[in-house]
Structure formats: C-alpha cells, structure tokens
Design the sequence.
C-alpha cells in the first residue's frame, strides 16, 4: 500500500458517502472513478465494503428514531407494520443479489459502457418523473401498506445493475405508486440499512480469502471518508428534495454517464 492508494481510497470514500443516498448510483460513480484513478482491488470488494461507512452515518443520524422504533415495537402495531414493511422491501433484492452475485461482480461491475448507459437512462427517467405532477396518497413512511413496500422492493432489484441507483430505483418506484417526494426518500433511507448491511456481510464472506492487512486499511480509510460525507447528505437531502425535487440529480447522472462513455468507451 502506497500513498497513491491511500489518496485513491480517500477520494472513493468521499464519493461513496456523497452519492449513496441520492439517486445517482454510488456504485456506478465509484466504479467509474476507480477506473479513472487506476484503483485496483481483488474481487471489487472495496466498492461494497466501504458502504459500511454510509450505513453507520444513517444509523447515527436516525439513532433517536430507531431507538424509539425499537421501544414501541412490543406495544405499537404501526411500528411492527413498519418494520415488516422494510423487511418485505428488502427481501427481493437480497434473494436476487445472492443468486446473481457472480454475474454482478464479474460482468456488470466490469462494463463501463453498461454503467454509463444506465446512468444516462436513469437520469432521463428522473427528469421525466420529476416533471409529473403526482397526487400523493402516502406522506408518512410508517403508514406505507405492506403491498406498497414489497413493490418498492422489486424496484430496488433494478439497482443490482450498477449505474441504476438503489435510491433512485426505490424513489421513482415510490413516487409512481403514490408517495410524496419526502417520504419516498425517507423510506429509501430506512431500506438502505438492511440492504447495505446485507450486501456488506455477504461480500465480505465471499471475499474473505482475499482480505489482507493492506486491503483492510484501504477499506477503513474509505469507510471513514464515506461516513463523514454521508452524514452531510443524510442531514440535508430530505429538505432539499422537498423543495427542489430530483431534476438536479437527473442532469448530474446524464453528464457523468456521457463522460463515462466518452472516456471509457469511445476513447478506449
């Protein structure tokens, strides 16, 4: 491990934290950025494992709500239904992620053309959805019906393709099924906790033979950077999307996708 690797890990960690909870695809960003930096790691585990920093960030920011949720579980049917809703939404991507782990890591992660194209397509979809004037029926994530949560979970499966965006897929799915912009983003936060924790645990298990001291040090650096950056995003995103919507993120995706196609496909 040299100084360049440490700087690369720091940069990628910041990118992970800034992009994990906004609908631009954190995985797509760090895969393209890693390619641009020449950053190599066995099994592409760094890109998955540094997500733990973003998980910890949302746990810290939402600590009070999570503690209250746990306290009310035995006595409050609304809390129990909400936990069941998050679990149901988590299941589809968990099952497909395990079944398709090899093709995701060995094929999808290695295709800058696919990643860039998905960034552009997702950006166009965000711009279209943001212009639609929905009449939301659901404003409180704890009131989401179980059927709605499960359908949001199926939308999350689209994000198994890097460049799609986990938060983008769940937010768009939520909006199309009647939630308002704020609750769509908030449910995506809650769903991120089991989804990212599961991806972290499974990828660590799959790549346990590749883990070395140097690799762990780089992951730790990326983790710390992702944690700090993600806290800033989580604390401000809900208010931002409530006021401004998602158009900015749509244009962001399109620009990054076009740059990816130019540098990694056209000039390759």
Sequence:
């Amino acid at each position: 491990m040299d100084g360049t690797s440490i700087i690369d890990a720091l940069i990628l960690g910041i990118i992970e934290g800034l992009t994990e909870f906004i609908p631009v695809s954190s995985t797509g960003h760090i895969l393209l950025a890693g390619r641009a930096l020449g950053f190599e790691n066995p099994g592409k585990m760094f890109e998955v494992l540094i997500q733990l920093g973003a998980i910890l960030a949302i746990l810290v920011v939402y600590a009070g709500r999570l503690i209250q949720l746990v306290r009310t579980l035995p006595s409050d049917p609304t809390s129990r239904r909400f936990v069941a809703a998050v679990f149901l939404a988590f299941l589809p991507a968990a099952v497909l992620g395990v079944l398709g782990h090899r093709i995701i890591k060995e094929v999808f992660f290695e295709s800058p053309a696919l990643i860039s194209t998905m960034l552009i397509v997702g950006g166009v979809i965000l711009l279209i959805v943001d212009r639609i004037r929905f009449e939301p029926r659901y404003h409180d994530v704890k009131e989401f019906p179980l059927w709605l949560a499960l359908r949001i979970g199926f939308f999350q499966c689209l994000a198994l393709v890097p460049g799609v965006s986990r938060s983008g897929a769940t937010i768009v799915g939520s909006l199309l099924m009647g939630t308002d912009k704020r609750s769509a983003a908030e449910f995506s936060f809650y769903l991120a906790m089991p989804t990212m924790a599961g991806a972290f645990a499974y990828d660590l298990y799959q790549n346990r033979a590749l883990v070395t001291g140097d690799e762990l040090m780089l992951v730790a650096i990326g983790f710390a950077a992702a944690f700090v950056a993600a806290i800033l995003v989580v604390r401000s995103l809900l208010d931002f999307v409530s006021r401004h919507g998602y158009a900015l993120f749509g244009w962001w995706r399109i620009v990054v996708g076009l740059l990816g196609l130019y540098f990694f496909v056209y000039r390759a």
DSSP finds 13 helices and no strands in the chain. The CA atoms of residues 89 and 151 lie 7 Å apart.
